[in-house]
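Hello,

Following up on my earlier ticket. Below are the two sequence lines again, exactly as submitted.
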Amino acid sequence: MLYEQIRQNKRRTVYVLIGFVLLVLAIGAAIGYMFFNSSIAGLLMALVIAVVYSAIMIGNSTNVVMSMNHGHEITSADQAPELWHIVEDMALVARVPMPRVFIIDDPSPNAFATGNDPQHAAVAATSGILQILNREELEGVIGHEMTHVRNYDIRLQTIALALSAAISLLVNIGMNSFWWGGGRRDRDDDDNDGGYLRIIMFIVSIVLVILGPLAASIAQMALSRNREYLADAGSVELTRNPQGLISALQKISGGEPMQAADSSSAALYITDPFKNKRSFAHLFDTHPPIADRIDRLQKM
Amino acid sequence: MITSIVIIVVLVVLGIIYASLYNGLIRARTYTQESWSQIDVQLKRRNDLIPNLVETVKGYGHYEQSTLEKITSLRSQLMGVPSDDHQKAMEVSNQLSDTLKSILAVSEAYPDLKANEEYTKLMEELSNTENKIAYSRQLYNSSAASLNMKLQTFPSNMVANLHHFTPADYLQVPEEEKSAPKVSFGN
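Thanks for your patience. The regenerated structure is below:
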């Protein structure tokens, strides 16, 4: 069952990747069409940005994500014995190599995992979570993160993150051209040949530019929600102690929102770092409601 | 001509199936052996920690003397267990874990011991090692289960019989840890 899930994850990664790349290219073409008179130029620009971003993320995702979230690495057990030892334990029982360990100085309790594959993974915990959780609870949390590592969730999230970042960069370029008078070819207005087609293309482009980032985040979040349940189950499989994770989730849900978190990495965290304030509908939730997660854990 | 091609193809396919079954068995057996050596490493580590621990707590409370003696004797008993007797090693180890736990409990009553930096460090090391023993035992048992499953199910059991694979023993889990819940992935 678990292995099927891992394989399915790897397959889904490919689909998401293809869908995302198409979206990036479409948005690039739309921006090129609207602001630079050439959809091909936009397409090429989008391609270059997507390739560069993905390459940076795949080669160096851990460092990028960690610096976006203000994490600093610890390299020996002396610096944070309990966290280090728990990560060691969970890596041992999940049969993955020891990941790199980071601490984020933020009083809000949270944790996440990132990386490209289990051989290049990293786990981060906030100083807040280390303070309020006891050993069993922290084991539950790290077990959850280690399941993300073992199931290759981290790779999917990493690539999704790179492509959403590419989309927001493209839209920013488009917006800047708009404000700085790039404008669209007013001079062509008296040319009526194919005018309808142009209007349609223009509208499609606007829709793409506006909805593109939205579509990207919806896809990213839907992918993330399902994995959270799975990672909770995986954590219990590793620790054999649902109570630890349950009481960890209860404690975390009472914490304050994070200051140091980066918004595009929200899906990586064990619970939503922004405490849901920005979303008006569950469509945008990166995480299932904690009550639901606890409910499922209690049924195990 | 065609029949010989068919025969060759069938033989090649059978060979590939055979090889992958055999490799699966070897992998399961290696995992099991490897997870035993994980336990072994942790048992040795704990044995190395004990003299330090005994040295540190010695000065506090004379009535712990018998506990300390018990720990020392269990430690040397554990070192004397032949390396392939997994059951015996775990049995002694479980007794040792219990006795060490009672030291932990007693030390709660000595504030200056708890404030001792050396002691706190030792305690973290000790609980780390105890946890690792428990987790590697869990890993061992799940590896053993997957090996034994392969030995009993068709078609890997045929390959296993051919190569005389033997089933792995499960390690006993101490009473208090037995209440571990079953995990199901159903939604």
